[in-house]
Amino acid sequence: MTDLFPAPSVPRVPVRGGGTFPVRRIFCVGRNFADHAREMGATAPASKAERGTPVFFHKPADAIVIDGADVPYPPGTQDLHHEVELVVALGADAPPGELGRDAAASLVVACGVGLDLTRRDLQAAAKAKGLPWDTGKGFDHSAPVSELVPVADIGTLEDRTLTLRVNDETRQHGSLHDLIWDVPDILIELSKLYALKAGDLVFMGTPAGVAALAPGDRFAASLDGVVTLQGRITD
To answer: b vs e for 97-108, b when ≥16 Cβ sit within 10 Å of the residue's Cβ?
Structure first.
């Protein structure tokens, strides 16, 4: 059977050392740092025993913006916000059945740093009405991401920190040690809801300090000591 039109190309992210990572799905985690949960008006758990279940949402795979590329200011918003995040890349399919921590960790082939760009005014309006806030999160060019670094070159993730600078001013900084749900935790919970497969990216949540971006702003995000992501917001 002949396609009605040429199939779109699969979004791909460069991998340090060679090759690319073809993106299947983008999963995102909300409120995964206690300080960010509090700044968004949510109650942060006092301990892991009180953390409940994680908040998940999606972005389309073609929302990816590669390091160094311009990011156009999106339509429909007057309040575009940055959220710097660890990004983990899955290089294998999850086995059937409930994942253990070791099996979950073994799915991760590489990591990077990304921005979960958010149309905050649209998200806030939807939340106030008890409606889904997909339009606030899953829009074109909403997922800038760095090159991906193989996990063998990173070491222990919880020893790393995230930083975002906008126009040379530090906006966000946080330690991955402070994640409410760490990487194996999140993959275990996701696997209860979805069939995780090679090609999936997971944006792991942001520390406090989210704020607005405007056309002309330049951003530099880093998984400190590992990789950086740079770009510019354009009209």
So the answer is: eebeeebbbbbb
CA distances from 73 to 5, 76, 158, 164, 229 (A): 29, 10, 33, 18, 18
**pLDDT for residue 149:** 98
Return the domain boundaries, the chain: 12-234
- Residue partners of 95: CB distance under 8 A and separation at least 6: 103
52, with CB counted inside 10 A (0-12, 13-18, 19+), is exposed
Residue 50: band (very low, low, confident or very high) from pLDDT cuts 50, 70, 90: confident
Q: Classify domain 12-234 at the CATH topology level.
A: Fumarylacetoacetate hydrolase; domain 2 (3.90.850)
pTM reported for the whole predicted model: 0.95
CA distances from 25 to 28, 143, 235 (A): 10, 12, 28
CA distances from 26 to 167, 190, 199 (A): 28, 12, 9
Q: Does residue 36 contact residue 207 with C-beta atoms inside 8 Å?
A: yes
- What are the beta bridge partners of residue 173? 163
Using DSSP's 3-state secondary structure scheme, residue 62 falls into helix
Q: What is the structure's pLDDT at 47?
A: 60
Range of weakest confidence among 21-35, 43-57, 166-180: 43-57
